Amino acid sequence: MKNLIILIVFSSIFIHTTSAKCLPRLQVSRDGHHLVDEQGKAFFYLADTGWELFHKLNREQALQYLKDRKQKGFNVIQAVMLSENDGINSPNAYGDLPLTLDNLPLNTEGSNTEDEHAYDYWDHVDYIIQKAAELEVYMGALPCWGEYVVPREGNAIFNKIEEAYQFGYYVGNRYKKFTNIIWILGGDRHPDERKEGIDLWRAMAEGIADGTNGTYLQDGIADYTTTLMTHHASVSSSKWFHNDAWIDFHMWGSYHALINNIESIEKATFDWNLPNPKPTINGEPAYEKHPLNWMPENGCFSPYDVRQAAYWSVFSGACGYTYGCHPVWQFYREGDKPISNVQQFWYQALNAPGATQVTFLKKLIDSRPFLQIKPDQDLLAEKSNDFISYVRATSGENYAFVYIPFGYPVKVNFGKISGKMIRAWWYNPRDGQARLIGEYKNTGSSVFDPPGLSEELSWLKTGSGCDWVLVLDDVAANYSQPGKIIE
Q: Is the model's pLDDT at 13 over the cut of 70?
């Protein structure tokens, strides 16, 4: 039996002393639409969904997962400290629970990884966040899943404003030295599903900020300049919190019910057009290998569904995207009860095609000045055809991207970006390769007919999976081929 230190945060404040590698803190750009680091460098948020990371994996497995995602090009991992899948009553990989019977953080003396009596649940969370920092990966950390604040099944553990504040203070204070944390409150549940929900989340956000700043004062006011926070649900956080000081960027999800789900377009567009805008992200799109509408007989979402949601979201105004793979988010292991008909173990699904293909979007974005980018449907000369309505265009001062999801020809207006001459490219979202089309005078318009799916399938040009990105550059800008990162 471990010797317990029960942390009652309002009387005995835990000071976390683990040294942490400092990554540049992230903040909102001046235009309110993008994320940047402390030096003003653009940060394209590309996250992987690892909800059960802290709960399911041991140290070796966690490091395997983090290294894989870093190698593939992800720069954020979204994970939950108090996880959804019985995260309160089911112990982690080392047999430890996160909370006492009174729902207070359960800690033991010391944090030595070689001492099972010292190394507790929160030490394990520390370890994973530290390893992520060493790999230069940010953690999109949820303090708890939404069920524990806004329950649908009667599982709330934070029922009072002071309880939400105190837990927020605990995690904020414990992780204040980690500059690689992005705080994500919520977790599926809409805050107004419970009468007190909005106030409870606001109290937790205040606690996190006060804990980060070392100021224990629950008064509805906090300094939020030292934190980066958002709220996760299917509906954008802009619905409830757009004018709240603690919300730095918005998050929403297109979720797992539909193919060709234009919510990826509609929600990003809505947030982009808000007054006093904040960056916005599709934080839970359809997961690769997830049953369509949770029904296995419908089949599963494909890599194409992943790509489509990603390009639709970003070209409609999102400052990033979160990928998810059904076996990986739950870290499905031997002996686990499968959730929604999962068919592979997590480590077998790490190389699902979509996990690589979404990183080609990041490479494309990073190959041009991202802070210039804006949705730009005026690039399209024709908007009436049903298939054309799914084409999304975005532009900077001297470049433009046009995502063509079904492979049909697209007529593009010239003169929308700078330059006398335009250089056009096809960018393949399946393999990240670019091919030069040619150069055009930057006047009038031109029709671009996407190539076939591949050399072997050159005849297959239209339909699901035949997506391409048309890239237009001002020749004078002298950009390298799309997807080659700017040094």
A: no
* Spatial contact of 331 and 57, defined as CB atoms under 8 Å apart: yes
Tell the residue number behind the tokens 């391409």, with chain if given: 468
pLDDT, tens digit, 9 for 90 and up, residues 389-404: 799 999 999 999 999 9
Instruction: Return d(Cα 203, Cα 209) in angstroms, integer.
Output: 10
| Number of domain units in the chain | 2
Question: Same domain, yes or no, for 175 and 92?
Answer: yes
- Based on the number of CB atoms within 10 Å of its own CB, is 369 exposed (0-12), middle (13-18) or buried (19 or more)? middle
Helix H or strand E encompassing 292: none
Q: 3-state class of 484 per DSSP?
A: coil
Residue 472 has which token pair?
A: 């237009």
Task: For residues 188 and 199, give the distance between their C-alpha atoms in angstroms, rounded to a whole number.
Answer: 17
Annotate 328-391 with DSSP letters as a single string: HHTT--TTPPPSSS--S-GGGSTT-HHHHHHHHHHHHHHTS-GGG-EE-GGGBS---STTGGG-
Q: What is the CA radius of gyration of the chain?
A: 23
Residue 487 resides in a domain: no
User: Residues 56, 95: contact at Cβ < 8 Å?
Assistant: no
| One-letter amino acid of 139 | M
According to the model, what pLDDT value does residue 453 have? Answer: 86
pTM beyond cutoff 0.90: yes
pLDDT by residue (tens digit) across 215-233? 999 999 999 999 999 999 9
Which of the listed residues 310, 340, 366 is the one where a domain comes to its end? 366
Residue 483 placed within a domain: no
279 and 229 Cβ atoms separated by less than 8 Å: no
Domain match, 200 and 85 both: yes
User: Does some domain include residue 482?
Assistant: no
Q: Could you tell me which of 82, 50, 78, 51 has the C-alpha nearest to residue 167?
A: 82
Q: Is 70 helix (H, G, I), strand (E, B) or coil?
A: helix
Side-chain half-sphere of 176: how many Cα atoms within 13 Å?
Answer: 23
Helix (H) or strand (E) holding 172: helix 161-174
Q: How many CB atoms lie within 10 A of CB 34?
A: 20
Contact 123, 8 (CB under 8 A): no
Q: Is residue 180 part of a domain?
A: yes
Mean pLDDT over each residue of the chain, to the nearest integer: 93
Query: At CA 389, angle to CA 388 and CA 395, rounded to 5?
Result: 85
Q: Which of 54, 150, 149, 136 is nearest to 93 (CA)?
A: 54
Are residue 211 and residue 129 in the same domain, yes or no? Answer: yes
- Domain of 276 in residue numbering reads as 4-366
Which of 366, 382, 406 represents a domain boundary (last residue)? 366
Structure tokens, 409: 């020809």
Please indicate, yes or no, whether residues 285 and 253 belong to a single structural domain of this protein. Answer: yes
Residue 162's SS3 state is: helix
